[in-house]
Design a protein that fits this description.
Layout (H helix, E strand, L loop, with lengths): L2 H9 L4 E3 L5 E3 L5 H10 L4 E4 L2 H11 L8 E2 L2 H10 L14 E3 L1 H6 L5 E5 L5 E12 L2 H9 L7 H8 L4 E9 L15 H11 L4 E6 L5 H14 L2 E6 L11 H12 L7 E3 L10 H14 L4 E4 L20 H8 L1 H4 L2 E4 L3 E4 L4 E4 L9 E2 L3 H9 L11 H10 L8 E6 L6 H15 L4 E5 H7 L8 H20 L3 E5 L5 H12 L3 E7 L3 H7 L4 H6 L21 E3 L6 H14 L5
Bound molecules: 3'-phosphate-adenosine-5'-phosphate sulfate.
């Protein structure tokens, strides 16, 4: 597509257009003169800095993917959507699209005020006329939208733990799109895609949404979907925030590029969608269908367990895997897009082919692997079976996620002061230097507190910042395939859990609980700090008057009461060896 055509569409003064497919499209980009005027007053405006998820929502509002929405939802719209899945005028709309702000910001912004929405760098992307500011009833939103208030659901977790306390609703006027540096040529607005269909003469298009790398099952599904709808195919992977534990976005995009070469020429188009997934199952399937209608698709594939997460610990699905297909199909007239339903696809061994589960006879032997199990296998450097994926895709994945002994790893020692973590960490550091096959960094508590966190004390908040900083540095080291050895007390379970989640996206995370009991640590008291804490000279000392929350399931447990530090380090090395982290 000619890039100048894209510019023309973006710069158009027309704020809404009727295209051949999909109905009226909102375009919230303002004209250049108005942009200049807004820039002139921008310094006087109260600013809201948007995080990645908010920026992706903003982008989809601006470019019309969320048509007919013209801004973030006001309370009236929000209540109607949460309660009835409809906008106040009765239009079907399944998910709240809201801008969350802190209580302090909520006090600062008054109804009617013009607010600047900026990205991390401070670039003003849009203005918002704040129509109303309202506190979030998170439980109500969780139960109605997600059908659960359980925080092991990723959407609910985001709502309870990341979303701030208030929403600000109002209309948007955009100066520019959020800025992307990667894979720009694969990003399109609905207007651009509709223009492309017109140019290519495509009249029927089936949209395919994915947050996972494409494999044989998905490839097969898309071919059949084209066949059933007698259409062309828009492959539209989601590249906003997906789900913790998913394969990283850049790798996925490289897989899609490889895969798109496998289709016959001029039948498919690959375009990235900066949507942040909420994993709301049936409600989310409706949202995905509406977005694809805006992208001019006449058909949309909804498959088994579409946008349905599994419980973190039990592995049970939050939604009936059939419910997304049923809901989307039931609403298809109103959605204005035909749903192409798919059952679970399984591999049939003797046919060497993928088939829908209900078409398989009882005596046929099958194989299947869940998305989550697959992602875990890839991230842990396991080989992917040939029946599951396409060789070109496997090659991209192996490059990004080599076998465990070539991946980065964080060894995270946690335990009371005096438990022996630092000594074990230093021995491990020396062993890895001796091995010499991966760069190694020691992030001992003292080293970190001197070089990274010297302004911090030992309040809950400061310990949290300290441990998260260690986690961040360790995650960068792990990402770049080094070894990070950390040895803070890290007394709080939740903080350790979030550090683990961050690091596991990039490589291995081995939690080593140096669980030497308090009385032994206190007897040792090498720095005399326990004595001072008992005497009340030091306040908030871990184990004395501040809690240590024990790890639930550390990879390695060491008690140095009757074990030398060398033996402790040996335990860790044996674990690493057994699990393929070292060779
Ligand atoms: S934390 O909780 O993870 O941020 O702690 P960390 O950065 O590992 O720092 C622990 C070391 O600081 C000394 N120290 C204290 N520890 C616990 N509680 C209080 N109030 C405190 N004040 C100072 C203590 O020597 C710890 O050293 P280690 O190496 O763990 O023995």
């Amino acid at each position: 597509m000619n890039p100048y055509e894209i510019q023309e569409i973006r710069r158009s003064k027309d704020t809404s257009r009727v295209a051949p497919h999909g109905g009226k499209l909102v375009n919230l980009l303002t004209n250049p003169e108005r942009s200049e005027d807004l820039m002139k007053i921008s310094r006087d405006l109260t600013t809201i800095f948007l995080n990645d998820r908010q920026l992706s929502d903003l982008e989809l509002l601006i470019n019309g993917s969320f048509s007919p929405l013209r801004g973030f939802m006001t309370r009236r719209v929000y209540d109607s959507v949460v309660g009835d899945m409809r906008l106040p005028d009765g239009t079907l709309w399944p998910m709240p699209i809201c801008l969350d702000i802190s209580g302090d910001q909520a006090e600062l912004i008054k109804p009617g005020q013009l607010v600047a929405l900026r990205d991390h760098e401070g670039f003003m992307i849009a203005t918002l006329v704040a129509e109303d500011i309202y506190p979030i009833d998170k439980r109500n939103e969780a139960e109605k939208v997600y059908g659960t208030a359980d925080t092991s659901h990723p959407g609910v977790n985001y709502l309870f733990n990341e979303t701030k306390t208030h929403y600000v609703g109002g209309t948007i006027e955009a100066l520019q799109y959020p800025i992307h540096f990667a894979f720009r040529r694969l990003r399109h607005s609905p207007a651009e895609i509709r223009a492309l269909y017109a140019k290519l003469g495509w009249r029927k298009i089936v949209g395919f949404q994915t947050r996972n790398p494409f494999h044989r099952a998905q490839f097969e599904m898309t071919l059949r979907a084209m066949d059933r709808a007698r259409s062309n195919l828009l492959i539209q992977p989601v590249v906003g925030f997906v789900k913790t534990g998913d394969i990283d976005t850049y790798t996925r995009i490289r897989c899609y590029l490889k895969l798109s070469e496998k289709y016959p020429p001029n039948m498919t188009f690959l375009s990235l969608l900066p949507l942040s997934m909420r994993m709301a199952g049936p409600r989310e399937a409706l949202l995905h269908a509406l977005i694809r209608k805006n992208y001019g698709c006449t058909h949309f594939v909804v498959g088994w367990n579409h946008a349905g997460p599994a419980h973190e610990t039990t592995g049970e699905f939050f939604y009936d895997p059939e419910s997304a297909v049923k809901t989307a199909s039931a609403y298809q007239e109103e959605l204005g897009i035909k749903i192409v339903p798919f059952e679970k696809m399984v591999y049939v061994i003797e046919e060497d082919a993928y088939m829908e589960e209900s078409r398989i006879s009882v005596d046929q032997k099958t194989r299947s692997l869940s998305d989550d199990h697959f992602s875990l296998a890839v991230r842990t450097g396991k080989r992917i079976p040939d029946w599951y994926t396409i060789p070109e895709v496997a090659e991209v994945l192996y490059k990004a996620y080599p076998q465990r002994h070539q991946q980065g790893i964080t060894i995270f020692c946690t335990g009371l002061s005096g438990a022996g973590k630092s000594t074990i960490a230093r021995i491990l550091y020396a062993r890895f230097l001796e091995m010499g096959n991966r760069p190694v960094t020691l992030l001992d508590g003292d080293i970190v507190r001197t070089n990274l966190s010297n302004e911090l004390g030992f309040s809950r908040e400061h310990r949290d910042i300290n441990v998260r900083r260690i986690g961040f540095v360790a995650s960068e080291i792990t990402k770049n395939r080094g070894i990070a050895i950390c040895a803070p007390i890290a007394p709080y379970r939740e903080t350790r859990k979030s550090v683990r989640k961050l690091i596991e996206t990039y490589g291995g995370f081995v939690e080593v609980h140096v669980g030497t009991p308090l009385e032994i640590c206190e007897n040792r008291d090498p720095k005399g700090l326990y004595a001072k804490a008992r005497a009340g000279i030091i306040k908030g000392f871990t184990g004395v008057d501040d809690p240590y929350e024990e790890p639930d399931a550390p990879e390695v447990y060491i008690d140095t009461t009757d074990m030398s530090p060398d033996e402790g380090a040996q335990e860790v090395l044996l674990y690493l060896e057994r699990n393929g982290y070292i060779k």
